[in-house]
Amino acid sequence: MAPHRLTKDEARRIAIHAQLLDAPRPTDLVEVVERLTLLQIDPTAAIAPSADLVLWSRLGSAYDPADLTRAIETDRTLVETVAYIRSPRDLPAVIAEARDAPTYPAMEAWLRDNEPFRRDILALVREKGPLLSRDIPDTSVVPWPSSGWNNNRNVTRMLESLALRGHLAISGRRGRQRYFDLPERVYPAELPVLDGEAAVRLRNERRLAALGIARSAGPQIPGESPYVGDAGEEAVVEGTPGTWRVHPAYVGLPFEGRTALLSPFDRLVHDRVRAEQLFGFEYVLEMYKPREQRRWGYFALPVLHGDRLVGKLDATVDRRAGTLVVNAVHEDVPFTDAVSAAVHSEIEDLAAWLGVTVTHAAPPAR
What we know:
Blueprint (H helix, E strand, L loop, with lengths): L3 E3 L1 H11 L10 H8 L2 E2 L9 H10 L5 H9 L5 E3 L2 E3 L4 H10 L4 H9 L1 H14 L2 E2 L21 H11 L4 E6 L2 E5 L14 H16 L1 E2 L18 E5 L6 E3 L12 E3 L5 H4 L1 H8 L21 E5 L2 E11 L4 E9 L5 H18 L2 E4 L6
Parallel strand pairs: 1-9, 14-15
Antiparallel strand pairs: 2-4, 3-4, 5-7, 6-7, 8-10, 9-10, 11-12, 12-13, 13-14
Organism: Micromonospora globbae
InterPro entries: AlkZ-like
Protein name: Winged helix-turn-helix domain-containing protein
């Protein structure tokens, strides 16, 4: 079969449609997460937690973060895994992929040496769960050999290792603290067990349905892979090197764009190479840079208008003052009056959703 031949406009519109960022807006929270396959959990809240921003970008101000908590902790229509919120339908493949993934030699040795520690945790959770990590004594035989942020966090390391492989499950939260319990008390009954090959195939298919168009393979980036193997069908996009994989159901669909402010972790822009090749969009998350080296801001939100990524919003929330402080709206291309009005309407909507008012920072002194 000959590859699909797509213009950049067509490729962008496929990506935007797959991510539910076209018009009309979706209306169902659980259906949105099922389509996106994941929400990344990140504690940075210069404006709002990333998972909430991603859902607001799709659902608008009708979205209430309490609905997400209820879906995870009460209804169990969504689940929290290590670093992500997912649909339960993806659990078998996610667990199988983690189970079969190669383990770093240091981690493998640490787990082997701490087998009694692992058994202690499972027995305690079975008897008394759900439990916070601070409720679990550290009976490790060998401490985790790190000088970094996770040094001497043996309980957390073991809990996350067990959760990744489906031996424990995250059942809820108290603030930023996670409760861990047995998976049969949290996950749907009788989840299928997949082998590694089936898991990879399903993950690639689900990922392509969420991304619309993606590369088959490439350099690894932190977090969820942006690559889809041989899922979908081959495509060539004008002005970009090599070939892509495209979800055939999205090719040729009518497109109606809208304006959206995106989390820096939004899947539309998370693969920075894809964002540059399809959208001509340059972006670096600058929260780890010294202030004087930032071009766009601490937690700048990419700005989508129609089928273009047109700029970045540098803003922060001052909860004490009850304001969304707009430091700058960076225009990658000059905004027309219509684009400017649409972007500022979204800023006002963001502030209303946050329960604050918009204010503009004073320009720096010359």
